[in-house]
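Study this one:
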Amino acid sequence: MAEFRWLWFAQLGSVVGDQLARVALAVLVYDRTGSAGLSAVTYALTFLPDIAGGPLLSGLADRFPRRRLMIGCDVARAVLVAAMAIPGASLWVLCVLLVAVQLLASPFQSARAALLPSILTGDKFVLASSVSNITGQAAQLAGFVTGGTLVAAFGAGNALLADAATFGLSGLLLWFGVRERALPETTEESKGWWASLSAGALLVWSDRQLRYLVALACVAGFYVSIEGLAAPYAASVGGGPAAVGILLAANPAGQMIGMLLLTRVAPERRLTLMGPLSIGSCAPLIGCVAEPGLWVTVALWMLSGLCASYQLAASAAFVMNVPDAQRGQAFGLARTALIVSQGIGVLAAGALADRWAPASVVAAAGILGVLVAAGAAYGYAGATRRLA
């Protein structure tokens, strides 16, 4: 458990650093240009690298020692973010540096996901995954709050330097607290970049359990779509900015509570609950068709988040069912599918809300999500029975 504590602290520093970079650079661009559009585009750039980095760079976690790769990513990000703080750097240089920083998040996260089962096994791994997921969400919130506070108090340049320090601290924690482990044996054919990517994609697609676990994860695209509708939904029920914040917090708060409760359930029971919970993550959203008031909606969205805790069991099952030699690449592909599904869900919901009432769009997302979740759950149960 001692190694996990060091790994946990390193994760905390890394995630906070990611959020600090997003906030500080968005503010820096706005201060220089006075353009809200350019500031928003800069912020959006921080999410695009995850889509490319997942399939293209996550395989590095299967070809290089994972602890060493994580440290290398942290050191590189510290240097890049520090370079962003240089006064007078042109905006296009800042954007290139930001994309590079975010690209390095993919191999870091894949290496961490592949390394964790080597540190903790069995149910301890599931508990550690729960702690990590909760930490990730809390650290994102802390990074946003801290980023805004640092920028307001010390300026965007100094905030970026503080951001660079968080990555440096993460690297030091990994260096001193986590021991190096040899990589599992791989075949010569799987050591190349394209070979690793192809083998990972073939593994996930050809294995029915893995395929349906990814499908279960992508159900998030339906219940996360509500985040893109928080502002118009709040306006439709007569709420202001405070109501937007409350709606946005409802689902993540429910997820954190759900994960804590799920860790108290027996391991075998968690797997059987994945299907019903995945359906439950979308079913409460259907209630929004009645256009309830703010607090009923908050309760429905929190219930959705509570059930969305099934993602903990799905993620742990996915990692444990992938051979150690391919965990980095397979995890990166699954993470990319999750991010893409969430992005499509938010964009689609936003586009539909221009034509229909936000409450109707949320309810429609709930109905479609229930259908997809039911199909994925049925497929996973069938695949599990075949292997029994």
Notes: The first helix runs from residue 2 to 33. The chain is about 80% helix and 0% strand. The chain has a mean pLDDT of 81. The radius of gyration is 21 Å.
